[in-house]
Amino acid sequence: AQLDVLAKLAGKQYFGSAVDNPALADKPYVRQLTNRLDFSQLTPSNTMKWETIQPQRGVFNFTGGDEIVKLAQRNGQKVRGHTCLWHSQLAPWVEAGKFDNATLHEIIHDHCYKMVRHYRGDVGFDVSWIVSWDVVNEAFEDDGTFRKTVFYNTTGLTYFDTVFRSARAADPKAKLYINDYNLEGLGPKSDAVAALVKDLKARGVPIDGIGVQGHLILGRVPTTIKENFQRFADLGVEVAITELDIRMELPVTPEKLEQQRKDYETVIAACRAVKKCIGVTIWDYTDKYSWVPGWFEGEGAALPWDEDLKKKPAYNGIASGW
Ligand code: XIL
């Protein structure tokens, strides 16, 4: 059976893929992307980021995001919104850091509220087509300290309150997540996220989930994913794997592909084992459009379909993990 079918049989809400708008011109690519037996969920990998959505103060551009949401809607696929607040791919006018605390709070509210509100109703749906939002992305360093972004430097921790409340007000039904990488296994960064989520919940700040990106390295899948996910779930939030890929040093060999199959299986089995791990999204489905070669020198082949859109052993690893 296929990946979303198996995820549902395992009691999960979806298996999905990220997609970036330029790839929508590639017909064979779109045919597989919209195959609902494999994917019942999509995440726009770039066009809901701040630099695109609000490139200048008060100037909003929803074109790319709308294109993906409409495609998903036509195909009965859910969407994950990505992302309200992130230090990277941020508009220069915000990044410059020239606003005082009160003004930056207003800017954060305005940005997140307008974007989440737009996708709740303005694209022609009665109900939101976006089931969950990565409200805050990558707020921590790997050692568990807060990342010193313009948001942190200007507002301290109060930006979390503002941005989560804005998202909730804009779309009360969407699940609101904090999302980060190197959060798969137990460690200082996942401890820090757990502590923050506990504090936000105790103070009544609306947060529903922890997103674990899952940008992993071949043969180095953490051994404590299940324990960590369960500890997150015990805080009273759901967990999702939001950007899974498992990269290898090139060239590809049959041995590496076999290791990758096992690694995918291990990760999926960990999600399967934790009831509150509600779904998995891969960070695009084919090596043809993976971000990995562009970001990690000499690495690639991180996804379950190769550059010719053929299934790799990793596909079977996901299937058997479910
Ligand atoms: C990546 C995109 O895939 C690339 O196209 C872009 O150039 C850089 O960002 N963590 C995230 C994602 O939360 O937004 C990133 O996406 C990958 C790392």
From TrEMBL:
Show where the GH10 domain sits.
Answer: 1-321
Q: Does the keyword Iron-sulfur apply?
A: no
Q: Which GO BP terms sit in this record?
A: xylan catabolic process
- Tell me which SUPFAM superfamilies the record gives: (Trans)glycosidases
User: In the record, what terms sit under GO molecular function?
Assistant: endo-1,4-beta-xylanase activity
The Swiss-Prot or TrEMBL record describes its family as follows:
Belongs to the glycosyl hydrolase 10 (cellulase F) family.
Entry protein name: Beta-xylanase
What is the species listed in this Swiss-Prot or TrEMBL entry?
Coprinopsis marcescibilis
